[in-house]
C-alpha cells in the first residue's frame, strides 16, 4: 500500500501539477536543512532519513512528469 507522500505525488503527476511538486520539494528540502542544522540530545537521523526518502519520491514524480510532457522541457513556468 502506498504511503501518503506517494499518493500525493501520484495525484500531482496525474494532474500535471509541476508547481505543486516543486513546492512540495522545496518544503521537504527546507525541513531537511533545518533538521540537519540542529544539535542537542535528540537524534534527528530518523526524521532526516524519512524526509530524504520523501525527497527521492518527489524527484521520481518530477521525472515522470517530465517524461510525460517532453515538449515542456525540464521546467515549466506559469
Order of helices and strands: HHH
Can you tell me the residue ranges where pLDDT is under 50 for at least 5 consecutive residues? none
Overall residue-averaged pLDDT value: 89
Distance between the termini: 34 Å
Helix residue percentage: over 70%
Shape: elongated
Count of the separate structural domains: 1
Count every beta strand, where a strand is a DSSP E run of 2 or more residues.
0
Please give the count of helices.
3
Work out the strand percent.
Answer: under 5%
Main sheet: strands, sense, barrel: none
CA-atom Rg in angstroms: 14 Å
Protein structure class? mainly alpha
Which terms would index this structure?
78 residues, elongated, 0% strand, mainly alpha, 71% helix, 3 helices
Q: Gist?
A:
By secondary structure, the chain is mostly helical.
Please provide a written account of the structure.
- This protein is mainly alpha-helical and 78 residues long.
- The chain has one domain (4-69).
- Helix content is 71%, strand content 0%.
- The chain is built from three helices and no strands.
- It has helices at 4-14, 18-37, 45-68.
- Helix 1 runs parallel beside helix 3 (45-68) and helix 2 runs antiparallel to helix 3.
- The protein is elongated and about 50 Å long.
- The model has no long low-confidence stretch (mean pLDDT 89).
Could you give the topology of this structure?
Blueprint (H helix, E strand, L loop, with lengths): L3 H11 L3 H20 L7 H24 L10
Helix pairs in contact: 1-3, 2-3
